[in-house]
Amino acid sequence: MSTTLFGFGYVLFFLGIFALLLFLKKRSRQDRAPFPENTRLLRGPGESLRRRVAELDEKITESVLAGLLVPVITLGTGFYITALLEGWPRVGLASLSLVAFLGLLVVMARRSLTKVEQRRNTALGLFGERVVAEQLEPLKTAGYRVFHDVPAGDPPARSTQPPYNLDHVVVGPAGVFAIETKTRRKGRARVGFMAHEIIYDGRALSYPWGEDRHGLDQALRQAEWLATHLQHQLGRPIPVHPLLVFPGWMIIRKAAGVVNVLNPRELPAAIMPASSQPEVLDSATVDRIARQLEARCRDVEL
């Protein structure tokens, strides 16, 4: 019984120390930073996904700790009470404690693995958005402004839709482009399809495993929202071109559609017009649009 009490006390002591350290860590975040309190940076590529990865890292740590401690505490509590009993009640409670321990261990392990998989998928999406961002960098030398992870959607008071983000927005002489990035893993291909190709017929996307319009509809909705928002802010119609980009995939375009579907390497040529084509937006309009987008994107704080 003394051994059981020692083990149970040790677990409680560990939990107390852990809770104290967690409290001190959170309190340390409130220390004064070396920057002015109103310092706000522009969002980088995949800023929302980066925040989600950091959030999942904390949840994974908490889930693993809970997975280690909750079953042990349950087993220790059961054995402590068991030591006070005699006969069949003691055997029954000991068996129940062991079953509860094993059940909690399985449940907590599955919970941790689910969060690990969520982090893996989120990190993949973040990497894909950074791949696209690198392909957009050369546009800046040609007078284009590039914004990433642009907050979109109406305020909750005016909309029932949850807020979302435009992965990338490019503004320049050729116009405004809203880019949606889809980073998808390659899987087993159907007969007649290549595992690395996406076929676009102007209406739907054919993946190696099936067809859908999800990315197309999303890219179109987001471009329409941005066009409406800019018209409201500038007082004149501003067409927005929707682009759907798949990092790591070869795109086979069999027909043109409202949404242009591309590989990231094709972005500069698709956005910058030939030298013989007239400019769609003058520099003053580009600056006005850029100011509106910068105001929405400058919200990254320490």
Could you characterize what this model shows?
With 302 residues, the chain is of the alpha/beta class. The chain has 2 domains: 2-28 and 39-123; 137-300, no CATH class. The chain contains 6 helices and 11 strands. The strands form 3 sheets. Strands 2-3-4-8-10 form a 5-stranded mixed sheet, sandwiched between helices. A hairpin with a 4-residue loop joins strand 5 (197-200) and strand 6 (205-207).
Give the beta-strand count: 11
Kindly provide the radius of gyration, computed on alpha-carbon positions and rounded to a whole number of angstroms: 27 Å
Sheet-strand content, in percent, reads 15-25%
Extract low-pLDDT stretches.
Answer: none
Shape descriptor reads elongated
Number of helices: 6
Number of domains: 2
Structural class label: alpha/beta
How are helices and strands ordered from N to C? HEHHEEEEEEHEEEHHE
